[in-house]
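Ticket #4471: complex job returned nothing on first submit. Input attached below:
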Amino acid sequence: MRTVAALILTVLALWQGVIWLAGMPPFLLPSPAAVAEALWLNRTEIARHAGFTLTEVVLGFALGSALGAALAVAMGFSQKLTGVLRPILTFSQTIPVFALAPILTLWLGFGMAPKIAVTVLIVFFPVASAFLDGLMRTPQAALDLAQVMGAGRIRIMRHLRIPAALPSLATGLRLAAVYAPIGAVIGEWVGGARGLGALMIHANGRMKTDLVFAALLVLSVMTVIFARAVALALHRLLRRYGV
Amino acid sequence: MTTTTALVRGRAWVGETPLFAPVELRLEGAGWTCLLGPSGVGKSTILRLLAGLETGARFEGEVTRIQPVALMAQDPGLIPWLDVTGNVTLGARLRGSLQASFLPKHPGERRSGPVEGPLRRGAEPPADPAARAAALIEAVGLADRAHHLPANLSGGQRQRAALARTLFEDRPLVLLDEPFSALDARTRAQMQDLAARLLEGRTVLLVTHDPAEAARLGDRILLLREQGLSEWPVPAPRPKAAARPYDAPEVLALQAELMRGMMA
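Support reply: We reran it on our side without changes. The output follows.
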């Protein structure tokens, strides 16, 4: 805790030092004090926008994780399906979400839907890919036993492969939790007036750099808390199931 | 009357290299058949063929078995997130005859019926799977470990749990793939005694590379070498429901003979 505090103080000192030494104007680099002031003066507005962003992040994360996990299980059942879907999935990741976001806004309107869609697109790949990896690595001794015991594919999946792959799924989810807010913010940049991303674009256009920094700070803190909460929940869950 | 329980007849290749010359292995009636041989001659391949498992070798010939089998291997294959009881009843859960993922704490709430099986043996009194599992766990000497996870068991205790799981399957034909070879000498001898006692009355195929183990347990001993399969004469019948004493002169002599046979 003390090292973290020391680190933050050092960064703030460097930040302030650069402003003093280089004589940066506030619209290029606002001072920490100015950012703090902007944060305080706009606290209700920032909180409202942060609320929207957080809602999009949570919904997009939940939906994207569910989709990714379901896809991984489906692919785990069928080598053939995996052979077809894997290149498509990889191809889908070569399209930058920045390019997709305007199209999604065009299709889904200016509400929350396109933001959630971008988040889903960002979340589902690491979840599906990590989970599938785990599903394909069930210990052979257990699979042999299950086959000799006369187990069907569905029960092997439910009782052996999925539980054994839960740590891999957790890895994917932890990664996805860090990326999810990026998806929501990209969606907000492109269209609509709500959310931290929209606030940043709006403030940037009016040279209110201190407000951009304040929104950015709130977004970072929110992401860290969200990712920690997800990691903690996963840790508890895994321990409860003893995998 | 002897009836053929299982049969493997044929030859196998790995790629273009022959794994073993044409063999015929026939299991008849109750008793222990030991398949002895050095590593890499295809002992496990024959066992996996009988179990209906992927072997990685190309096999030409016929495999017959009339009943479902139970399998116990060197890797006990215990499920790390299930306790001993959960692992012992794994088969019932995988066949869907135990409803809950974990055994219920109160037997009265159980919704599942008894474990199915084509050949129920009269010697097992409790029909209820939970009671049957508890009786078997006691029989292998793990009663005080029934709710321990595999990670908290020693190597010998893990194989005891695996033996209880094998018995829970209640199959007439039991396939043992070097199940004791990773254990220390004393634990191995204890496990051999225990297995001989608890598997009495079943048809057992034991794959092993240890001549001492074959000498203790084999009612029939088959030696598998590159040139094929040969039956080794067993001097005296094994005592009922027990392994031969590890220090008896005739057992030691048989062990030495088998060793010579493997070196030849």
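Residues 30-241 of chain A form a domain with the MetI-like fold fold (CATH 1.10.3720.10). Closing as resolved unless it happens again.
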